[in-house]
Amino acid sequence: MSFGEEAAAYERGRPSYPPEAIDWLLPPGAQRVLDLGAGTGKLTVRLVERGLDVVAVDPIPEMLEVLSRSLPQTPALLGTAEEIPLPDNSVDAVVVAQAWHWFDVQRATAEIARVLRPGGRLGLVWNTRDERMGWVKDLGNIIGHEHDPLNDEVTLPATFTGLERSRVEWTSYLTPQALIDLVASRSYCITSPAAVRTQTLDKVRELLRTHPALANSNGLALPYITVGIRATLA
Q1: What superfamily does domain 2-129+146-170+224-233 belong to in CATH?
Q2: Res. 7: pLDDT tops 80
Q3: How far apart are CA 171 and CA 98, in angstroms?
Q4: CA-based angle 22:27:32, to the nearest 5?
Q5: Model confidence at 192, in pLDDT bands (50, 70, 90)?
Q6: Cα–Cα distance between 65 and 117 in angstroms, integer?
């Protein structure tokens, strides 16, 4: 629930998702899609742009308020992965962006199976910073290095079949202030003591001022690796 404190920073700083990664998650012919753990709507926007009938669910009112300002016509419902406020067999796909690790997996997968139509798809997606680039690795030294959540850690029950994994490399372009917002919106930064939080953000500002690739730059190129999982309800 701590994300509510930094919903605006989350929206300003967090990246979107590359089109090919989103298309890979969705089943052919999908019409009604649940964005579960939708947050401020980073993925929801991209789904709506595709002409899909989208419903967003998240447990944090402040996050949904930001989402609804961008997407006033999209249903935005308070709820959790463990108690989804939708009827049985009501969606063609459930997508989860950057949120699976917050779920009680056993309860969540049962609920997802309940709301999915037979043959429906579950799609999971994460953005991870590509730390092979010098300054991005230096950023990781300050705020903690990225960890690919799909390294054999995600398993699904037998009710989901045909599990596949994907990987897309791309670049997000952002301002120096957006990088500050990105760090400020991370859960560990939000929940840190005020002194630790201030120190972390000051170190990021120092990196922006002093790193040869960043100093005096108004725009940053932040490389990402988007990893995904998809599986079909048996």
Answers
A1: Vaccinia Virus protein VP39 (3.40.50.150)
A2: no
A3: 17
A4: 90
A5: confident
A6: 29
Within 13 Å, how many C-alpha atoms sit on residue 167's CB side? 8
Token pair, residue 152, equals 């054999």
Length of the chain as a residue count:
234
CA 209 to CA 207: how far, in whole Å? Answer: 5
Within 26-60, residue ranges assigned H as helices are 42-49
Model confidence at 1, in pLDDT bands (50, 70, 90)?
very low
Question: What is the C-alpha separation between 171 and 160, in angstroms, rounded?
Answer: 32
Cα(179)–Cα(175) distance, integer angstroms: 7
Q: Is pLDDT of 227 > 60?
A: yes
Inter-CA distances, 122 with 30, 35, 42, 117, 152, Å: 12, 10, 18, 11, 17
Measured CA to CA, the distance from residue 177 to residue 169 in angstroms comes to 23
CA 26 to chain centre: 16
Give the predicted TM-score (pTM) of the model. Answer: 0.86
Angle subtended at Cα 213 by Cα 212 and Cα 215, rounded to the nearest 5 degrees: 65
The dihedrals phi and psi of 62, each to the nearest 5 degrees, come to -65, -35
> 4 near 58, Cβ under 8 Å?
no
Amino acid letter, residue 176: P
Domain boundaries, the chain: 2-129+146-170+224-233
